[in-house]
Amino acid sequence: MSEIQMEKGTKVIYDISFDSIKVAYNRKQGDVLSVEPVSERFEDFLMDSLLNALKIVPKYNYDGICVSYTGRKSTHMTEEERDEYIMNESMFTGIIKDWHIRNSGKLVSFKGRPQNLYFKTFLKECGMIWVLGTQVTNKDMLTYEYSLATAEGVDDSPVGMVVTMPSLDTSDKITGYLGSVLAADIVAEWAISLQGGRQVGGVGIYNISNDYFYADKNYKYTKKIISSLNPSVK
After folding, report:
1. Which InterPro entries is this protein grouped with (predicted)?
2. 107 CB contacts (<8 Å, ≥6 apart)?
């Protein structure tokens, strides 16, 4: 990793998923995995999980973290469930904020659905916000997901879109596709256009190594995305 950082100038971060921590807690308690944990009992588990996850930054000299958060619309919850949801989110973001104050030189990015954050001021901690386009099935849905994520409370931080390269299993015609077309091919053109009056902040690619094996063994689609977002000066 140090070679990538020093010689390539690449920043290396890793995911910390709030949703995964909730699922792990519910599984341990024997609860329905999707139920909102009771904050008073969840707090210690959340604290321990986050502190263990954050220890990886100095241990391996990561450049920062990516906060993965899907969440749910609080308008569809009961009052009791919403109160627990807000409290759990507040604890989670509070721990991340405190860590970032003490590690201000480290990067913090957000990935998921920022529209589901109750306290969107947390996004000010994030230098980049990533919207997941890995489940969409066409170009219009890319635009729709992007518009939901940027509708309110996302003012200053750049907002990008994440897609995935196809599976190495040639029979899988769903992963990495928007309909019958490669997602990476479509997003290269989609991202250079204004979306809702704002410039797309970047493109993220899952399974980028698959690009090498998929086409001409030269990262064809990754290079296309890079050249679209950062055209060479003529």
Report:
1. GH18_BT1044-like (IPR032320)
2. 11, 13, 63, 64, 65, 127
